Every structure is written in structure tokens, then in C-alpha cells.
Fold this sequence. Notes:
Bound molecules: guanosine-5'-diphosphate
Strand order of the largest sheet: 10-9-8-11-13-12
CATH class of the largest domain: Alpha Beta
Oligomer: single chain
CATH topology of the largest domain: Rossmann fold
Amino acid sequence: xxxxxxxxxxxxxxxxxxxxxxxxxxxxxxxxxxxxxxxxxxxxxxxxxxxxxxxxxxxxxxxxxxxxxxxxxxxxxxxxxxxxxxxxxxxxxxxxxxxxxxxxxxxxxxxxxxxxxxxxxxxxxxxxxxxxxxxxxxxxxxxxxxxxxxxxxxxxxxxxxxxxxxxxxxxxxxxxxxxxxxxxxxxxxxxxxxxxxxxxxxxxxxxxxxxxxxxxxxxxxxxxxxxxxxxxxxxxxxxxxxxxxxxxxxxxxxxxxxxxxxxxxxxxxxxxxxxxxxxxxxxxxxxxxxxxxxxxxxxxxxxxxxxxxxxxxxxxxxxxxxxxxxxxxxxxxxxxxxxxxxxxxxxxxxxxxxxxxxxxxxxxxxxxxxxxxxxxxxxxxxxxxxxx
Length: 388
Ligand code: GDP
């Protein structure tokens, strides 16, 4: 089902329908239009500010009326943040998605701001929106982007962010003194690499492993595209793919020996997908890894209607710049969710120091590490030193 005003097919096309432009100019504001409009009508700063103020004022006024009527914050429903755009966000609760605004004061107090995965107490306000059958809403929001938001009024006000169980930080965090969270409350991280196109960068896998554990997430290492090393696949001279697969099997066995779960998959050939489903089921999993390794293909292989790429297009500004608030949570039919974080090649190593790095490399500490693991350790250590 496509909600009114949403035109997924229009994503990425150079020209937007006039209706979409009009709706956009009615509602979009602040970071929302910065992040969302591609080659569309731009607003003047004044227009933008005024629109934003009006939307926020109305929503907050309605919320205040309810608060005055005695509905306290502690009794409000708790939802999970699917996506954040400036002062707007999407919050999922009981199978429904609500377009929310954040109180400015709250956004200022929580210097880190709202992030994907945050659990929030939110106050539903009366709007003229039709209720959405919301299994479809996240996909609609990802694909419809500007049109989706333009066609809707904020439905709720976020009143409080609940304490975070885990926090994944951005790569620049460890250089500074402030933490920059990008995802909250995720339980695990699927680190995806591919056997070919691009080849596995074991150093990057190791670095993301540290970031996951530093953020309190359980890592799972997945090597995709193993079909390229199958006997019938067109091979490089000398069977380089087969050799790489042998190396990958050895590396994964080494991770397993340290208690890290691993997977060998082919999205193309349907290999390892049951095991992948088992890993994802019932958990919130952050997807990590270079672009092109097959993250979207894997997700599509296990849930065909879920297309991470559609949302990705909208995560660029019209200048082609990635936004930093672009993580997005997708609910899985069979239970659980995945969080896609495009633009974040390296997660931050917040709290990781030269002193505690050996805890993340028990094999290096025990003297049982293969050469490539020692190299990863040395490289990460060198990257930490300037901050000491
Ligand atoms: P993402 O950027 O990590 O989301 O990667 P995509 O899912 O977009 O995949 C990038 C490219 O790799 C696409 O051309 C896919 O068709 C291809 N690809 C994905 N999975 C596999 C696989 O298992 N085997 C092979 N041979 N190609 C794959």
C-alpha cells in the first residue's frame, strides 16, 4: 500500500511532480529539506524558518494541552526511533509509525540529539492524517522521502529519550572529547565483506569488530559472494578465488575460536541465508561494511520487499554530500530489525585506548594471533596514539 502523496517511482527522477513541490513547500523545513530535496525547489531561509516554527508551535501547543489535562510523561507509550531528520523523526510503536517532532529544549539538553534506535516517550496529538497501515510506512518513508513527509502533519511530540542500552559512535568521536552517537540500543552488528568486488579487507573487519564491541554490540562476521569461488564460476588464472575462500574459511575459524559468530553467504545463489535469518531473527542488527559487498542484496534475499538502496538515494543532499543523521531502522517480517548506516565507513572507537585495546584482541594478548590479526592490532594502536 502506498500512502497518499507518496510516489516511490519518482525517486531519483530529475523532475518531481508539481503537486509534490507544493506539498513540500507547505511542510518541509530545517534539515529535512537540506537532506531530502534533490534538485527540487529550494526555500528561502526565511520561508523555511517560518514554516518550521509554525509546524513545531502547533504540535507543541497540542501536546501541552494534553499535558495540562494530566497525562504525565511516565504514562506515555514508548516507541523506537526509525529515522531522524533534524527536529523531525519517525517513531514506531505497536506496528504503527508516527511522524514526530522533538521539543527544541529537549534537543538542546540532549546535546547528542535523538538517534536511530532511541526509545522515546511520545505524546500523540490530533491531526488530520489518515491512519497508516504501518507495516508499509517505513518503506514508504524511505522511498517517498520529501513527498511522504510533505503530505503529513506531525502526529506526536517526543517528550523524553529513555536511557540507552548500547551506543554506536561515529568515527570522528575518538579524536575528540565528545561522543557522537549514530545508533542506540542495537544488540548486534553484521559486518559484511565480500570475497570479490571488493575483496575482503581483513584490517577493516577487525577495526569494525572493535567498534562493535566498544559500543556494546555483539559482532557477527559475514563473507558474501562466495559463489565467485564455486567450481563452475569463471575463475582468475591460478584459482585465486578458491585460494581466497580457503583463507577466508581459516580467518572465520579463527574468529569462531574467539567466540565470534561467522557466516559464509551468497545472496545471488541463496547460500547461507537460513543461517543469516537465524542470526537476525528477534534482534536489532546494525549493518556494516563497504558499499558494494552485498548488504542490500542479502537483505533483499531474505525479505524481497525491503530495499535499502531506495532510501540511500535520498540520504544525499543535492550537493551529493552524505548526511550524518542518515541511519535508518527497517523492521523485519520474521522478527527483529536491521539498521542501515550509509556513509559511515568507519565506526568510532569511543572508549578504546592503547591500554585496553588488548582486551579486544585476546589472541594477540595470548600470543596465538595469526600475522594478519597482529597487523590489524598494530594499525589500530597507531590510530589511537595521537589521541593519547
Ligand atoms: P551494498 O552496497 O553492500 O548494499 O551492495 P549491493 O547489495 O548493492 O551489491 C553490490 C553488487 O554486488 C551488486 O551488483 C550485486 O548484484 C552484487 N552482489 C551482491 N551479492 C552478491 C553475491 O552473493 N554474489 C555475487 N556474485 N554478486 C553479488
